[in-house]
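Quarterly update from the structural biology core.
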Amino acid sequence: MTSLKSDFLQILTEREFIHQVTDLEGLDAKMATAEKEGALSAYIGFDCTGTSLHVGSLVQIMMLRWLQKCGHKPIVLLGGGTTRIGDPSGKDESRRLLTDDDIAQNMQGIRTIFDQFLTFGEGPTDAALVNNAEWLDKLEYIDFLREIGTHFTINRMLTFDSVKLRLDREQPLTFLEFNYMILQAYDFMELGKRYDCRLQMGGSDQWGNIVNGMELGRRAAGLSLFGLTTPLITTADGKKMGKTADGAVWLNEDSLPAYNYWQFWRNTQDADVGKFLRLFTELPLDEICRLDALEGSEINEAKIILANEATKMCRGETAAADAYATAKETFERGGAGSDLPTVEIPEAQLAEGLNIVDLFLDASLGASKGDVRRLIKQGGAKINDQKVESAELVVGKKDLADGQIKLSAGKKRHAIIKIS
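Predicted structure, tokenized:
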């Protein structure tokens, strides 16, 4: 690859963030100049389909963080408008339409995530939080079609993956969703005009939408825009990063306790440690190379560092330290660390007795009753560090130890039951 002049693109290249760039040489020159003379603005869009983002969005968030650290201005675009439609990219079926109240609540939860990674304010390199409802909600539809719709052909739109996927699988694609790519392109043009934003970044599935926005900005507003995408991040066994047996790995504390978040990183496969250290921490590359070279039981040192660094960045230093201390207490000393996920059960309910399968489900240590029964049959379920022998076991007040009950699913997932 050509020697890069800008710090930002050099870092992204070294840490393997980049999949495609529309004009690498032109973007590099523009960013290198901006790093000396003033900030370049770039954005990534996030639809508000839930109260939290999950680790699948973390690559994008880390790019915004590096952008700011290199002296540029990150723009977080929240899709208050586009969430009312739903992005069809990578989806086999239509999303459930959310109410305006749902979207507002989701936006509030998502905003707290970015406060951990970015510095917001009014300065030239301070991050900006923008809601695309600011312009989309004001559109007059006929005027919009006349001014913007003429720049898009159905022939071209049918070639994009978000459309082809549905059609190839004979799944319905509503006309509402078909409009999504036009609105996303319009977002890029509006950000270019309102905030002098010159770069849109996103996952590889957004390439067509990004190119659409660049072309619209050039044709309708005379803007020179750039696009950059990241590769799809998969684990060594080929699975999409962040998908686990227990569901998505959420970034918000309300959706996933810090201890569970720490454990997700601690359980990284050996072959993924180096990649995840490059993408999800700010450790120097020479230190990452040292950690990536560890083998056998020594690789656990690298996994603990990965878990500590990733948790510290997302949840704060105290949360990372507490999660690590709880893990040491749980695994090294066989105790029940104070930071383990806790479920409260009414005292009267425990006095009557609870089936062990139901208790594991209440503690989110299984996806279904069948899942828990298989765990018990395979010898992976424990209560107070003792193997559960039967799925018919009834747990009661007799099982309390120091006022609590410790449940374990395998060696790495634990929860505490307490009386409320």
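The mean pLDDT is 88.
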